[in-house]
Amino acid sequence: MAFAEIKAVASVLCYDSTMSTVPKPNLDIPITAFEQLTDFFRQGARPPEDWGIGAEMEKLVIDARTGETAEFARIEQLLNRLADQGGWQRIVERGRTIGLKGPHSSVTLEPGGQLELSGQLCPDLCCNYGDYLRYVTAAVAIGRDLGLMFLGLGAQPFTPLENIAWVPKARYGIMGPYMTRTGDMGQRMMKQSAGLQVNLDFSDEADCMAKMRLVQAMAPLLFALFANSPILEDRPTGFLSTRGEIWSRTDNDRTGLLPFLERPDAGFRDYVNYALHVPMYMIIRNGEYIDLTKERFSFDDYLQRGYQNHRPTLSDWDTHLSTLFPEVRLRPQIEVRSADSLPPHMALTVAAFLKGILYDRQSRELAWELCRAETFEQLNTLCRAAWQDGLQAAWRQGTLHDLARECLALAQDGLDRQSQQWQHGINERQFLDSLVGIVDSGVTLAETLLRKWQGDRQAKMALLEQHCGFPGKLGLTESGDCAEPTTD
Question: For residues 34, 38, 40 and 45, what is the CA-based torsion angle, rounded to 10 degrees?
Answer without folding.
Answer: -160
